[in-house]
Specification:
mainly alpha, 10 strands, 3-stranded antiparallel β-sheet, single chain, 5-stranded parallel β-sheet
Length: 857
Amino acid sequence: MRRRLRGLRIYLAVIAGALTTVISTVYENVPPSLRYGSLIVVALLSGVVLLLTDTGSARSPGGRDSSGDWPTTARSGVEARQALAEPIAQTAFVGRESELDELTRWHDEQRAERTPGRSRPAAGLGCVQLFLHGGPGVGKSAIARKLAERLAPRYRHGVHIVDLGTAGAPRPPGEVLTELLLALGWPESDVPADPQGRAIAFRSLAAGKSLLFVFDAARTADQVELIMPTHPQNAVIVTSRFDLSLVPDMQAARSFLVDVPSESDALHIFRAMSRTEDRDSPYCAAEIVEGCGRLPVAIRSAAERISDDATNVCAVASYLREPTTRLSRLAQPGRQVQEVLQSEFDRLLPMERQALTYLAFLPSPTFAPWILMPLLDVNLREAEALADRLHAAQLVRAVGAARRTHVVRFTVPPLVGLFASQVAADVPADRRRAATRRADRAYRALTARVLNRITPGAGLAEPADPYVDGLLLADRIARDVPGWIDAEYRTILHQIGVAARAGDDEACWRLGALLGGATPATLDYESTANAYRLATAAAERIGPGPLTATQFAKGRFLAAAGRYGEAEIAFDLALEAGKRAGTPQEQAEHAIVKQLLLGQALVRMGAHDLADERLTDCLRRATDARAATHVYNAEILVAINSHVECPYWVQDRLQDDTLDDLGRFSASIAYAESALRGREWSTALHHLRAARSSHDLSRAAFVAVRTAEVHLEHARHLERTARPQGIADALDRAIEAACGAIWRYHQLRDNAGEHRAKWVLARAFGAAGQLGMAEQLAQGLKTEVTDTHKDPDSPGRAMVARVHQLNGELLYRFGDAPAARAVLIQAATLFQILGDPMSEDDVRETIQRPPSAATTA
């Protein structure tokens, strides 16, 4: 019977599949009394489709099924899964577990809705749909394939991956459908001529089968809509640069945004691709990953220079260090990062290309859409539309709307910014000057309005500007100045220079004071130091009041950057100027804050005796002034410095939100320190994560170095208690966190912080048996620290003690116990003088229970 109907089966299957699709689509509108009948009809028709289209699994050598039916290119589920696994293994996929887990959860939720017997029957829901979108090179295809590999065991009829784009252009849906039909066993000679016919045939063939499809690199919603299967047993994963869930006809509930991987995942990707060990030049590896903007396609290109060219990690880091040549040097066969970006750039409309190019003229990578008005000489509606379209193309990322101001901002990813700068170099000089002049004038007009709103009576002239007049932006920014500074820090620094060149001392010093010592993630130390220099010079020309404000802001910045001596000088100059201009209450406030911030800086440096003096004086002054917030902050810092439990009332203050930002950060650190003393490693890391900030570089660096120390102490505890399991993992995490801290402290130009991070890194290398790396770091530290802290009263004396501790531990590991003991006794004595009993006890425990000797690695 099947043989006799062979010529008619195709058409009968199409008719049956089409009826199934129609009934499934209109199911929600079927009267309740007829729904059970509809389900029976759907089931019968699905069975008919299976009977008519199932080609069997037995194949003759000539390509014909043993049943005598037509040839088929469809593979069994096992074969499809094996074929799917091959490219995954070849790309050495690592990391992204959180993204895969979330996408798997989305899949399971949709699959559960399509399970018979639930309150909402399966027939009206169509196939499971998982949409992924993201910028070029972020790893959408790799995640989709890995997700398909994870889900493959659930789809017994196979997994099929189809590329929907060729050389940047979309493939016609009809061509894709032909490929799918042939893959599912449809005879080539019987493929319908028109795309609609192929779509019906494909849906008929897929109906009732447990099939998973990956539609990779979709360009348009129309392209996907025509090839989408409709049966609930099917599932589809779609990747695209665009969020296709925003297209109403797609009927997709949501699309998963694939962003660049986390710092840890990016490092794991680099290690897998470069075939290097985690402990091989970790600082250089971190530099490469950050230089690549954590973009997987760029990381892979850099990594392959190591794996294929037989070079080393630090050589590649040095090779890629120069921003102007980085994109061209990332070029590898099949990994042309610049070509990927060029392809996306070429697909933009002319005005969109100009917008992306002109954004390279801005000092800050983060911007609000309004700035495109002066850059391009367009109106607000056009500016916002251009920003939205660049975001839709995933060439800029949405920072999101500020909670208090609702100001929407975008940021240009690092490598996209480098590409835009290269394109901008070809913009004629006159056009560039005209655009930057318009932008500078507009931003200057905006800052004048903001300054007048946050300081009533400032009386700054508000120059008329066609791009700013009528905007409510200044009022919104004035409600969240810290958010503005964090988002557009480099542009504000640039505006200080603009005001100075224009002779506008009033705006210059006010902007400098407004910075307030902030250390955002985009900090450039040299530019910041120059801005404070210009602001204080402008303040000196005006009077003691402005000079107090700018010097105080400068002192805050220097204290956050670990420059204790320079910070103290700036604070003293501020206090001296304040005596001539401020009220007694203002002078008292400034003296309290000076002692508080210098005390905090000393706590971080480990100069506990000097910190105790500062914080005790701060607490006394704050108590006398009845400054409750400063009392809270000083008490918490005293607890940290004294290595005791956080005051009992801190938890209540956290609950009723009476602690300021410094207080909340310090409380998290205090709880982490308490957990560390109790060897509650997970709890300590939990509190450090709570303290971590992506917006404050100084705090992020300190949290990173303390995180490294927690992991190192955990590893040392496991070693001392003869529990080897977990040591290697803890040391790897310590090394990774220490390298992150070094990177951040270097950006801050915080030598003391960088020394501490290198100290942790050297100790971790020593504990890991890599004595060559540890000794090299120790020798460098000894030279740097000895030269820097010759003064016995220097706040950096703690680092001298730490270097002795490091050298003593290494001597033990080299097998020279007598020398190690002598050096460690020196370290313990120094820690005792510094008032650091915890470090002193740690050194004495090392003497009593020394680490075992190791061979050099």
